[in-house]
Amino acid sequence: IYDLASKCSVLLAKDFVHNAFTVILNEETNNSRSLYVEMNQTVITIYPRLKISKMYNFSFSEENCQVLDQSLEKNSTNSRQETNKIEVSNQKGVSVFCDFQYDLCTVTLAGWHHGISAGLFGTNDNEAGNEWMVPNGSFTENVQEFTQSWQVNKCSLVPKKEKPCPITAKQNICKVFFEESYSLLR
User: Fold this and answer.
1) pLDDT per position as a tens digit, 28-63
2) What is the pLDDT of residue 5?
3) Which of 55, 77, 94, 138 could tie 21 with a disulfide, CB 3.0–4.6 Å?
4) Per-residue confidence (pLDDT) for residue 62, from 0 to 100
5) Which region among 96-110, 116-130, 157-171 has the lowest average model confidence (pLDDT)?
């Protein structure tokens, strides 16, 4: 257990062999954070303080900006949301669960992910001696060096320019947030 010394976005865990998942802790404006989860060409961004999540499907060529009302079965990514909880999982044994009430998120990996992932969550191979591996394969015992090595951005104050979604996708986002029966904003 350690405090995250960085105010930057950092890679928590990624499958570097099969690219089955990526989990990034993003630093947002107003001193809050979001959790970026990528599985099977589906991206789920979870905002624990806002108690909301956004989901997009994308292809390798371009972002489709498809939102929560699209079927996820073809991507083998499942999402389940309750009033104060959300769980995202795939058929490859990766599960991300967030409890908004307690501001707590967990990442659970099945056994076949042992030793093929890395990030701030370590190497996931049950070896205590190599948990502080940095991206170049060397090791450190310094928390700040370890944290900085897994940063995914330069911590610039210039906001990233996102590719705008088509108007219909934006309308779908509003529908999901304000009209769906499970939405906390309804």
Assistant:
1) 777 778 889 988 778 888 887 777 777 777 654 344
2) 57
3) 94
4) 42
5) 157-171
What is the DSSP secondary structure assignment for residue 75, as one 8-state letter? G
**What does the alpha-carbon distance between residue 98 and residue 139 come to, in Å, rounded to a whole number?**
30
pTM: 0.69
- What b-and-e string marks burial along 157-166, b requiring 16 or more CB atoms within 10 Å of the CB? eeeeeeeebe
- pLDDT for res 24: 92
- Token look-up 């501001």 returns 103
For residues 24 and 22, what is the distance between their CA atoms, to the nearest angstrom? Answer: 7
CA-closest candidate to residue 114, choices 10, 16, 39:
16
